[in-house]
Amino acid sequence: MRNAWLIARRELGSYFTSPIAYAVTAVFLVIVGYFFGMILYLSREATMRYLFYNVTTFLLLIGPALTMRLVAEERKSGTIELLLTSPVRDGEVITGKFLAALLLWLAMLALTLVYPLLLKAFGNPDPGPIFAGYVGLVLSGAAVLALGTLASTVTANQIVAALLAFGLSLILWLTDAMQNLVSGPLASFFSYLSLSVHFEDFPKGVIDTKDVIFYLSVVAAALFIATRMLEARRWKG
Amino acid sequence: MIEVEHLTKYYGDLPAIQDVSFGVKKGEILGFLGPNSAGKTTTMRILSGYMPPTAGKARVAGYDVVTDSLEVRRRIGYLPETVPLYHEMAVRDYLAYMAALRGVAKPAQAAERAMEACGLTERREMLIGKLSKGYKQRVGLAQALIHDPEVLILDEPTIGLDPRQIIEVRNLIKGLGGSHTVILSTHILPEVSQVCERVMIINKGRIVAEDTPERLTGRLRGAQHVHIQVARPARDTVTSLEAVPGVLGVTDQGAGSYEVEMALDADPRAQIAELVVGRGWGLLELRPVSMSLEDIFLTLTTEDAAAAPAGEAQAAEAQNVGGSHDGRHARGGQSR
């Protein structure tokens, strides 16, 4: 895992030497600030609940922007050849890449902590749901970023990677809509697969192990497939 | 140190290399010579563990490149054909990163050493993207050397460098021989004769020749040639020269210059000189012409010549090519 950390650290460095991290963070903060202000103005409630539901949907746009370059860029520039001929496991490459995106997402979330602090300064918010909401954002974010890492592994084109990541996450986001078409166990299956359904309880202050395990499974599955995709090159006789 | 047996690689239906076998001893510098798309890069990519062969086996330091890929990768330094660099990183940071990835205990110190070896110390703080092509190439070389690997695989290491840098890099590589095993590919021919102890010529995915640069030139020559230049050629110059014992043939190249082909075991140069001087033709020049690597390369990699079996047929072919292209011969003479 030392190698994964090395790769993550380099990746974070290049996030900040390119405009990507700044652009994405700036856009994210402006939107979050706007929504926070509007929601507070309209609801007059010292709660982050509505904001959290909105932020998860920004995630569908922010996530692909953070992950699209991870592996695709290395494939395009050829640096992948050096990475894969270094004594580093394919799994470590993928984990490192994912970790970098996740750390950036955590940093972006940390910057939004100013809003609960504002609520605390001028009102009396319930800290439980706010904490749980942030946990939910970290977990759902991890899932979307893992899907994005997978998308970035299959192509050398960043735009294709971004679109693929967006499509994958959006479909998984909305699978619960299938309940309108099917019923019975199939309906609950599609509902279980939904990234959004599992988020619903967090802003209410409920951290359900079932939801936590779901998001962690999505991360594990996406990273596992991504590693296989990277390995596939070795077996394409 | 490196053993390659019947290596074959297909890209879809297209064979990139076919039944390639060779070995490299510890401390040896092997030159891999061939035209573009001959299979040099494919072979090197397989050896570096980047991709597997379709068939055949390759071992580096006793480890199989497919089943023990990680062990192989620990022991090699690899410079791919397109120097892969992170343009947004500073030279020093990049080298320290590569050193750490290769498991070097003190990456910062390793980076300093590699920068010194490759003449990069003055550029250490610069972003790689802002470096000139020559310096980028050096950074690529530095990352291949950084963990002091047992085996170095260098795919066209001097491409894009200016003549002075080329000499520096060649000396650097020559200095690595003995303690390191080196495979380098190139299509620059003098490079091979200067740097490598052994040459392998590959064409269309197959090895067509393998030997020391000297022996390769000797083996394919088949006959010796001398070039003579006289001031006043006479009508019977050609016939008189042909009458000298040991001379196999004479080609009149016009303006008093002749190409004389001699049997390998005879050396009638003294008699030729006597003849020319004695007849008062005015001897201006008499020099041996040897086949340069360039001639051999062209001979072996030209369509029909490559198809011919090794040995006599190739030697004969080589002679033909040599005899009919005087321009190339002139160059051959100089390169000696």
Description:
The complex is a heterodimer of chains A (237) and B (336). With 237 residues, chain A is an all-alpha fold. In chain A, 77% of the residues lie in helices and 0% in strands. Chain A contains 11 helices and no strands. The model of chain A has no long low-confidence stretch (mean pLDDT 91). Chain B is α/β, with parallel strands linked by helices. Chain B contains 14 helices and 14 strands. In chain B, helix 3 crosses helix 4 (107-117), helix 4 packs across helix 5 (133-145) and helix 11 (293-301) packs across helix 13 (312-324). The two termini of chain B are 31 Å apart. Chain A binds chain B through residues 3, 6-7, 10, 13-14, 17-18, 77-89, 233-237, and chain B through 10, 45, 48-52, 54, 66, 69-70, 73-74, 76, 78, 80, 82, 84-89, 93, 97-98, 100-103, 143.
- By secondary-structure content and strand pairing, the structural class of chain A works out as mainly alpha
Helix percent of chain B reads 25-40%
Oligomeric description of these chains: heterodimer
Radius of gyration of chain A: 19 Å
| N/C terminus separation of chain B | 31 Å
Instruction: Give the N-to-C terminal Cα separation of chain A.
Output: 29 Å
Shape of chain B: elongated
Query: C-alpha Rg of chain B, in Å?
Result: 24 Å
Write a brief structural summary.
Chain A is an all-alpha fold and 237 residues long. Chain A contains eleven helices and no strands.
List the helices and strands and how they pair.
The complex is a heterodimer of chains A (about 240) and B (about 325).
Chain A: H1 2-17, H2 20-43, H3 49-67, H4 72-77, H5 79-84, H6 90-111, H7 114-122, H8 127-153, H9 158-174, H10 185-193, H11 209-235
Chain B: E1 2-11, E2 14-24, E3 29-33, H1 40-47, E4 55-60, E5 63-64, H2 69-75, E6 76-79, H3 91-101, H4 107-117, H5 133-145, E7 151-155, H6 163-176, E8 181-186, H7 189-195, E9 198-203, E10 206-211, H8 213-221, E11 224-230, H9 237-243, E12 247-252, E13 257-262, H10 269-278, E14 283-289, H11 293-301, H12 303-307, H13 312-324, H14 326-335
Parallel strand pairs in B: 3-8, 3-9, 6-7, 7-8
Antiparallel strand pairs in B: 1-2, 1-4, 4-5, 9-10, 11-13, 11-14, 12-13
